[in-house]
């Protein structure tokens, strides 16, 4: 498939594979927080499809909200600057909070976001990411629950964008001719 001079590579993870992983992690998270309430915070916009899969697999009293944190402009390289342009109004004090993210790349976004959320003194604060790209990490951050690890490719689809496009692809692929 080719659009606007971008060549889309092979499928890295199919929808079925992603949903199966969401089920596995959903069960693990449900066991860990058994009998307790969980506040799930999705990061707009990338986490939406993964959050939709994961939340249906949580056998817990669950509250959902969103924050919008962006570290990228309209290029394929990080700006290194995190902007929280939409915040949750939920009271996080003494709550079990799970941040749901699509990808941890340099780790800049989540390191900053978790520092901010920690200021509200949640009981627990954990992160479930669909993808982890450890080869690109510059910030000291690791996720608690990881769907899949990926190589240093510019991944797109299932929420992941290039210049706001490709989020709607029902699989994870990569751009063959773009920076990483
Ligand atoms: C992307 C991605 C992660 C973050 C990861 O979001 O969805 O949130 O970058 O990069 P990092 O680990 O290097 O900080 P982006 O800022 O592009 O916003 P989006 O979710 O709206 O696409
Ligand atoms: Mn994002
Ligand atoms: Mg993006």
UniProtKB/TrEMBL annotation:
Family classification: Belongs to the purine/pyrimidine phosphoribosyltransferase family.
Gene encoding the protein: hpt
EC number: 2.4.2.8
Highest classification ranks of the organism: Bacteria, Bacillati, Bacillota, Clostridia, Peptostreptococcales
Keyword ATP-binding: no
GO MF annotation list: guanine phosphoribosyltransferase activity; hypoxanthine phosphoribosyltransferase activity; magnesium ion binding; nucleotide binding
Keywords for this protein: Cytoplasm, Glycosyltransferase, Magnesium, Metal-binding, Nucleotide-binding, Purine salvage, Transferase
Catalytic activity: GMP + diphosphate = guanine + 5-phospho-alpha-D-ribose 1-diphosphate; IMP + diphosphate = hypoxanthine + 5-phospho-alpha-D-ribose 1-diphosphate
Any matching Pfam family: Pribosyltran
Protein name per Swiss-Prot or TrEMBL: Hypoxanthine phosphoribosyltransferase
Keyword Iron in record: no
Compartments it resides in: Cytoplasm
């Amino acid at each position: 498939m080719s659009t606007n001079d971008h060549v889309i590579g092979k499928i890295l993870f199919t929808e079925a594979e992603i949903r199966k992983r969401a089920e596995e992690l959903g069960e693990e998270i449900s066991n860990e927080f058994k009998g307790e309430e969980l506040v799930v915070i999705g990061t707009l916009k990338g986490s939406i499809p993964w959050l939709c899969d994961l939340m249906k697999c949580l056998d817990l009293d669950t509250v959902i909200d969103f924050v919008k944190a962006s570290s990228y402009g309209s290029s394929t390289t990080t700006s290194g600057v995190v902007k929280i342009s939409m915040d949750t109004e939920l009271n996080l004090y003494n709550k079990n909070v799970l941040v749901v993210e699509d990808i941890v790349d340099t780790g800049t976004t989540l390191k900053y976001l978790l520092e901010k959320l920690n200021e509200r003194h949640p009981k627990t604060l954990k992160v479930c990411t669909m993808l982890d790209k450890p080869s690109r990490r510059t910030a000291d951050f690791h996720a608690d629950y990881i769907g899949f690890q990926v190589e240093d490719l510019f991944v797109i689809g299932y929420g992941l964008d290039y210049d706001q496009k490709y989020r709607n692809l029902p699989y994870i692929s990569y751009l063959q001719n773009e920076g990483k």
